[in-house]
Amino acid sequence: MLALVLVGLTNGALIAQTSPASIPDHPRRTQVNNRLNNQNQNIDKKVEEGKMSKAEGAKLHQNDKKIRTEEKSMAKQNGGHISKPEQKTLNQQESKNSKAITNH
Predict the structure, then answer these.
(1) Is the overall model pTM greater than 0.70, yes or no?
(2) What gap in Å lies between CA 55 and CA 23, rounded to an integer?
(3) pLDDT < 70: residue spans in the chain
């Protein structure tokens, strides 16, 4: 479902435009977000198994939340997409968090 943003009137006709937030995920966004989802599941699993404390898990979840917020901000600035350099930056941040998860 696409959300519409009302832009204005032209010769008495109302013009509608899709909002960037309503555009289906771009493949680079999907890759980054799928990786974040996997990392969050791995954190939860480590905490459940007792291989990681709840406090450590919370810190790693917070790191992932910051990455997700940054991804959303980048996409908002680019009409719903992220560029290859932005994807690379986000993946580097995710890799750092992933190493912290793996080392537990």
Answers:
(1) yes
(2) 36
(3) 1-24
